[in-house]
Specification:
single chain; alpha/beta; 2 domains; four-stranded parallel β-sheet; 9 helices; 9 strands; about 50% helix; elongated; ATP hydrolysis activity; ATP-binding; ABC_transporter-like_ATP-bd; ATP-binding cassette transporter; ATPase-coupled transmembrane transporter activity
C-alpha cells in the first residue's frame, strides 16, 4: 500500500512537472513573438526587412516539436524512478531474508517421492473452447534419479514441466510429497528450473552473499569466464548468446542448490563438446550429490 501511495504521489508530481514544462516554455515563446512583432518595430529597433528575416529563422526552428517531446521526457523520468524503487525494495528483501528466512543451500528441503495422480491441465480460448489438454498424467518422481522426458513439438513437454515445478496449477488431480499434501510454496521450493525462455538478472537474489565467491569457479566450469565476470555482487553483462545465457542460468541454479533440477532442452543451443559435458559429466556429478534431475530434450 505504501508503494502504491508513493507511485501515486510520483505520478501527481510528474503531472505538475509536465504542465509546467509545457505551459511555461510556450508562454515565454509567445511573449517573445509578441515583443518581436509589435514592440520592436514600434520602437524602431527592427526594420521590416529584418523582421521578415527573423520570422524566416523562427519558422525553421522546430520549437513546437521540441516542446511536444517534454511529456515523454518526464514520463521516462518517472519510469526510471520506479525501477530504482523496485531495485531498492528487492535489496531490502534480500537483507531481511537473511535474518528471517532460511538461506538457499543452508537448510535443504528433502523428499523421497513426489506423486502426480491423475493430473489434468488444459488451455481454453476466449469462448471457453478446449484448445489443448494434457493428461491425465500419473507420475512418480524418486529422490536421486535422472528422468528424461522426450516428445515432439507441441506434445506438452514444457507444460508438463511447469506442472511438475508448480508454476501451473492442475485443473484436476492431486500432488503428494511423501504421500502427503503440501502447499504449493513448499512444493516450488524443491525446484531449480531452467526453461527454454531464459530470464536472467545481473544480481543473485535469495542466495547467501558468503557463497558469491563460488561464482567465479562456476563461470570457469561453464567456460564463459572470458565473456562475463562477477564483480561488486553482479554479473558484468547479460548480453550473451542463447547458449551462454543458459550456461549462466545453470550457474544460478547450481548456486540455489535445490534438491531437484529441471532442464527444458538446456543442451539445444550448446556445442557438441558442451552437450557431451552436460550429459556425461554434469548430470552424473549432480546425481552423485544426491540431486534429482528432470530433463526435457530431443537428443
Amino acid at each position: 500500500l505504501s508503494n502504491m501511495t508513493r507511485i501515486r504521489d510520483l505520478r501527481i508530481q510528474v503531472g505538475f512537472a509536465i504542465s509546467d514544462g509545457i505551459l511555461i516554455p510556450f508562454s515565454i515563446w509567445y511573449i517573445a513573438i509578441f515583443i518581436i512583432i509589435f514592440l520592436f518595430p514600434y520602437a524602431g529597433l527592427l526594420s521590416k526587412q529584418t523582421l521578415v528575416q527573423a520570422f524566416q529563422v523562427i519558422l525553421y526552428i522546430p520549437v513546437t516539436f521540441i516542446l511536444e517531446q517534454l511529456p515523454y521526457v518526464f514520463l521516462a523520468g518517472i519510469s526510471v524512478k520506479r525501477i530504482a524503487m523496485l531495485e531498492n525494495r528487492l535489496t531490502r528483501l534480500i537483507q531481511t531474508s537473511v535474518k528471517k528466512q532460511p538461506v538457499c543451500g543452508t537448510e535443504r528441503q528433502s523428499f523421497s517421492t513426489i506423486d502426480f495422480q491423475d493430473i489434468v491441465f488444459f488451455y481454453q480460448d476466449n469462448t471457453q473452447n478446449l484448445q489443448f489438454q494434457l493428461g491425465p498424467v500419473n507420475l512418480t518422481i524418486h529422490q536421486n534419479e535422472i528422468l528424461f522426458i522426450v516428445g515432439g513439438n507441441g506434445s506438452g513437454k514444457s507444460t508438463l514441466l511447469k506442472l511438475i515445478t508448480g508454476l501451473y496449477f492442475p485443473h484436476e488431480g492431486s500432488i503428494l510429497i511423501d504421500n502427503e499434501k503440501t502447499t504449493m510454496e513448499a512444493h516450488r521450493a524443491l525446484f531449480s528450473a531452467i526453461f527454454t525462455d531464459v530470464h536472467l538478472f545481473k544480481r543473485l537474489y535469495g542466495i547467501d552473499r558468503s557463497r558469491h565467491t563460488e561464482v567465479k569457479k562456476y563461470l570457469k566450469m561453464m567456460q564463459i569466464d572470458h565473456v562475463v565476470s562477477y564483480e561488486n555482487n553482479r554479473f558484468s553483462t547479460l548480453d550473451l548468446s542463447t547458449g551462454q545465457k543458459k550456461r549462466l542460468a545453470m550457474i544460478v541454479a547450481l548456486m540455489e542448490d535445490r534438491p531437484i533440477y529441471v532442464f527444458d532442452e538446456w543442451a539445444a543451443e550448446q556445442s557438441p563438446q558442451f552437450k557431451s559435458y552436460f550429459y556425461n559429466t554434469l548430470l552424473p556429478d549432480l546425481k552423485l550429490q544426491g540431486k534429482t534431475i528432470i530433463s526435457v530434450n530431443h537428443d
